Amino acid sequence: MRKMDVKICVIEDIMPSDKDINDELIALTTYYDQEIEMVAYEFTFISQEVASLEEIPQLKEDKFLSSAVIINFKKPDDGKWRSYLFSAIVTIPKITNHSKFGTMPLLNNYLHIYKTFPCVVSISEKKIHEFNITGTFFCQQNSITSVCAHASLCMTINNMNLQKVGIISPEHINKIVGINHKDIRLGSPPSKEGLTKEEIVAVLQQYGLSITWKDFFENPNIEYNDYIYKYLESRCPVLLVFSTSGTSAHIVPVLGHTLNSDMWRPEAEPAYSSMGNRLNYKPASAWIDHFIIHDDNFGMYFCLPVEALKRVTLPKYDPTFRAIFAVAVIPSGVTTPAWEAEWASVVVIKDMLNYYLDNKLPLDDWSKRIIASDPARRPIVIRTFLVNKDDYAKSLTKKDFEGNKFSEQDKENLIKDLPFRFWLSEITLPDLYTANKTKLIDFFYDCSLPPLESTEDIFKRWIQIRVPSVLIKRDVNGSSLISPMTVKSHYPLLRYEGEQELLDW
Q1: How far is it, in rounded angstroms, from Cα 162 to Cα 372?
Q2: 486 and 344 part of one domain
Q3: pLDDT class of 191 with cuts at 50, 70, 90
Q4: Which residues contact 259 (CB under 8 A, 6 or more apart)?
Q5: Contact (CB, 8 A) for 136 and 294
Q6: What b/e sequence results for 311-336 when a residue is b if at least 16 CB atoms lie within 10 Å of its CB, and e otherwise?
Q7: Residue 427 is part of which domain span?
Q8: Is residue 234 domain-resident?
Q9: Domain match, 23 and 171 both
């Protein structure tokens, strides 16, 4: 709050009116089998000074930074008070009250998982003021009746726009997994150390959510950051589990990422390192330097350096501080893995463009540059993510580098054969990706099929390909249907309509 220049804080005593807090009290009482002394306060942080509470309703909504509940309770075993953040709605981080620019977003911060929350603050005993905060939900474990898995599940589910699902608390999770704090407890025998992977999945499924997950110890060739990135760009929250120095692991929700367009490694590695030649392309994740996470032990909107949890073999690195597995919450019906779509885009595009070249068929200069790209020096860049038909349609209103726009006929041809949701791979060159934020090719791939069994099947799964000047569709017989396009140059990367304002470099 200090970073966002908070000016005032309204503090309210909310015991015993809040049901979830009473549930928390009952859980602790059951665990210790005796009465628990507890108090709870709600804090409303505001970035503008007011002379009295009566002036609060006159404030603009962007002046409300956070609405947070802190619980304090006395532990019967040692008589010490414990405090933790039971729940908090926190606005998207931004610079406020800048002397020159006023309010502005953070540079190169891409927060993909957030929503608008209704909040209230008391003006008097009989009067409240309702307001909204666009941001994220944060909470902490109490380490007795809830652990980091509870907090991470609450932060994940509560930050999604789920129909008919209100704000869930740790006790909602305990009921699902059968923890009653008496016969089955956390912390001491007979106990559970935490939640298992299976229980985490069961909780997500209880709320109608579909998941996909990957164990990075069992799949050592998969880079955890690349796996996570594709789902984040799809606006899918990800739960990341990593090893610690203790006996148990830790879990955090991943809500976004930062991007460094001046990153040296993605372009230098293919030229200087033998490791850089394993792929003939660079995934867009190579330019991600941090993931934006909530860590219930430390706070919200932390930047986790990507390199921190990567596999290393040098003795100076802590082998316990490594990514173990990730669980991505995905839309129902998505069964084709992201890696398959990205790999298919490379194989199909290269094959098709080379066919055009070998048979002296018309091919634009930009596509020739894609073919001529040297994997060892200047590999192509691919950004793969889930897109629905409406969002893609909304992205067709901009101009390409030469000032061309899609005609109405082009838009109709691009949209009419698309399913509701699909994998989109945006293919481009390093300079265009980092400097222009533009793409050359759109590759559309089915997301509703089971994982690939035969490499030949990738040629049966792509839907259509847009290259400069041309749209290529695959018909039921496997042949290609070609239509001219008015856009002839590199075109802006897809950005979601209504997504938070961004400052890019």
Answers
A1: 46
A2: yes
A3: low
A4: 108, 110, 287, 288, 289
A5: yes
A6: eeeeeeeeeeebbbbbbbbbeeebeb
A7: 338-492
A8: yes
A9: yes
- Pairwise CA distance, residues 295 & 311, whole Å: 21
3-state secondary structure of 72: strand
Q: What is the largest CA-CA distance in the chain?
A: 84
User: Can you give the pLDDT at residue 400?
Assistant: 95
Q: Do 389 and 309 belong to one domain?
A: no
User: What DSSP string runs through 24-40?
Assistant: HHHHHHHHHTS---EEE
Say how far apart CA 205 and CA 330 lie, in whole Å.
11
Examine residue 504 and state whether it is found in any structural domain, yes or no. no
- Is-contact 439 432, C-beta < 8 A? yes
**452-485 pLDDT, tens per residue?**
887 778 888 999 999 998 898 987 776 678 889 9
Residue positions counted in the chain: 505
Tell me: do 161 and 86 sit in the same domain: yes
Over residues 369-386, mean pLDDT = 79
Of 287, 314, 330, at which residue does a domain stop? 330
Judge if 289 and 144 occupy the same domain: yes
29 φ, ψ to 5°?
Answer: -60, -45
CATH of the domain at 144: 3.90.70.10
SS (H, E, C) 227-257: HHHHHHHCCCCEEEEECCCCCCCEEEEEEEE
Domain presence at residue 502: no
The count of domains in the chain is 2
7/135 Cα distance (integer angstroms): 19
Place of tokens 């194989």: 347
Q: How far is CA 333 from the centre of its chain?
A: 19
75 contact partners, CB below 8 Å, separation of at least 6: 32, 81, 82, 144
Task: Flag whether 3 is in a domain.
Answer: no
Task: Indicate the pLDDT class of residue 44, thresholds 50, 70 and 90.
Answer: very high
- Provide the pLDDT for residue 132: 97
Tokens read off for 35:
């009465």
Does residue 293 share a domain with residue 358? no
- Contact indicator for 490, 432 with CB cutoff of 8 Å: yes
CB atoms within 10 A of CB 78: 8
Residues 179 and 197 in one domain: yes
**What is the predicted pLDDT for the residue at 245?**
79
Number of separate helices (H) and strands (E) present in the chain: 11, 26
Domain finish residue from 283, 312, 330? 330
Are the CB atoms for 104 and 149 separated by under 8 Å?
Answer: no
Alpha helices, DSSP H, located in 285-434: 338-358, 365-372, 389-394, 408-415, 430-431
Q: Are residues 379 and 291 in the same domain?
A: no
Tens of pLDDT, residue by residue over 355-371, are 776 666 667 788 777 77
